[in-house]
Specification:
single chain, mainly alpha, elongated
Length: 108
């Protein structure tokens, strides 16, 4: 997996950059709605509901970022690319699609 690790490392770094940008964008969206804003009761309820959805997405992105950082730090370890459950190799396609994943499709 010598050359592949270089490609995987590039992919992880790209994913880290995209995920961090997404986190920054989501952080802007979860800022509190000022009571001075003259929006109706229904609009305010809709905004509160949207905020909950955005907060959930933010948590998922933070979790993904943390997993990507772990994957990047362990890329040179001998067990990188090995499923933590069944100990079989994770297919390269899955690693390139979800570099933060430490499980094969069957175990996920």
């Amino acid at each position: 997996m010598g050359l592949d690790k270089e490609n995987i490392q590039v992919k992880i770094n790209e994913e880290i950059t995209k995920t961090q940008q997404s986190i920054d964008d989501l952080n802007e969206q979860v800022k509190p709605i000022s009571p001075e804003n003259a929006i109706g009761r229904i609009s305010r309820m809709d905004a509160i509901n949207n905020k909950s959805v955005v907060e959930a997405s933010l948590r998922q992105n933070i979790d993904k970022l943390n997993k990507l950082k772990v994957a990047l730090s362990s890329i040179n370890k001998p067990d990188f690319g090995i499923c933590v459950c069944c100990k079989k190799p994770i297919p390269l396609g899955r690693i390139m699609l979800m570099p933060q994943s430490n499980r094969c499709v069957e175990c996920a």
